[in-house]
Write a structure and sequence with these properties.
By secondary structure, the protein is of the alpha/beta class. It contains 15 helices and five strands.
């Protein structure tokens, strides 16, 4: 932004122009005009350099009021301070000038005290406000850039953790990518279908980020259980199910690298992505709206991807069969609203699956 370091002194009297130049010239570059046409020309030419215009109410050729109307129509008065000078003490002049957003009325003959108080002090305060505003904007941009870098770091960290977990149970590293993609598709569909649900872009991003580490608690599950191709015993099932609470415990260890909202969503997903709408899930037997929407969304896409994936103990299902199993409740009960969105997203989910 160009520095506003000039003041336009517009006065029909040469002596008044000279006096103001002396009073203001130590602080600003001075431009002089003795009629309204000159004023309009200088304002247009130097609109990005002018800090202020000191405008004689009785300027000839083009009236002060007309000049102010032009400045207002071109939205200059928000950037250029306007001081109206006059020998008259007339309430109508005050009304018209202040109605056009004049900063102050300066009475002639000029005095050094009045000029310093009404013009220089005002411009100094304005310059300081502008400096502070620019500093705040600069700090805001720096914070935003820092947050973006932290988000990228955290995304990469979670992707790496999710991929490592996948390597324990599969030969493919595509599970993490599919879960993220499926989660975003279903979350956006839910937001569009139910605009009052509380999901915004920021919350969707948190859910997508948290979806990657939904199974992070499986690092605490022994290979003898996690990789067992046979039907698990009741005790083994309990050990496997403990990955939900273990996942929440691990999130506590990662709390310092997440903001509070991301931490909340990550914990919701880790602990409750195996809860079911009818209360038949684990670890807490939550039902219905007790289950956070973040966990509900990841729950359904996790079940869908599990059906599509080859595991030690199973072959993958085709997409149509997997879709029907979800919709028919063969993988547990999901919320009707969420199933509606899952159904409407069928084609997008299949396209994303094909590309990954």
């Amino acid at each position: 932004m160009a520095e506003r370091n000039k003041i336009l002194i517009a006065d029909r009297e040469g002596a008044d122009r000279k006096l103001l130049s002396q009073l203001l010239g130590d602080s600003y570059d001075i431009i002089l005009a003795d009629d309204g046409r000159q004023v309009l020309s200088e304002i247009q030419k130097r609109k990005n350099e002018l800090a202020a215009v000191v405008l004689d109410w009785d300027i000839p050729l083009v009236s002060a009021y007309q000049i102010m109307q032009v400045m207002q129509s071109k939205r200059m008065l928000g950037q250029i301070r306007l001081f109206v000078s006059t020998v008259q003490k007339d309430s109508e002049i005050d009304k018209k000038a202040f109605g056009m957003d004049a900063t102050a009325i300066i009475q002639k003959p000029y005095s050094a005290v009045a000029v310093h108080r009404q013009i220089l002090n005002c411009l100094e305060r304005e310059a300081e406000r502008e400096r502070l505003r620019e500093e705040v904007e600069k700090r805001g941009r720096q914070l935003e850039e820092s947050q973006k870098k932290l988000d990228v770091f955290y995304d990469n960290l979670l992707d790496a953790i999710g991929t490592l977990m996948e390597y324990r149970v599969s030969e493919s590293d595509q599970h993490v990518k599919r879960i993220k993609g499926f989660t975003r598709i279903l979350a956006v569909a839910y937001k569009n279908e139910f605009p009052d649900c509380g999901l915004d872009e920021a919350e969707i991003n948190r859910i997508v980020r948290g979806s990657v580490i939904h199974d992070i608690g499986k690092v605490a599950v022994p290979d003898a259980v996690l990789l067992n191709p046979a039907k698990l015993t009741e005790d083994e099932q309990q050990i496997l199910r403990s990955h939900t609470t273990k996942g929440e415990e691990i999130m506590q260890l990662l709390r310092e690298v997440q903001d509070e909202e991301q931490f909340r969503v990550s914990c919701e997903i880790c602990r409750w992505h195996h809860e079911r709408h009818d209360g038949g899930g684990y670890p807490d037997g939550l039902e219905g709206s007790e289950i956070p929407i973040s966990a509900q969304i990841v729950s359904i896409v996790d079940a869908y991807d599990e059906l599509l994936s080859e595991r030690i103990s199973k072959k993958p299902y085709d997409k149509e069969t997997a879709f029907k199993k979800i919709m028919n409740g063969e993988c547990g009960a999901f919320a009707p609203d969420l199933l509606k969105c899952f159904g409407s997203s069928k084609k997008l989910l299949e396209l994303f699956s094909d590309s990954n």
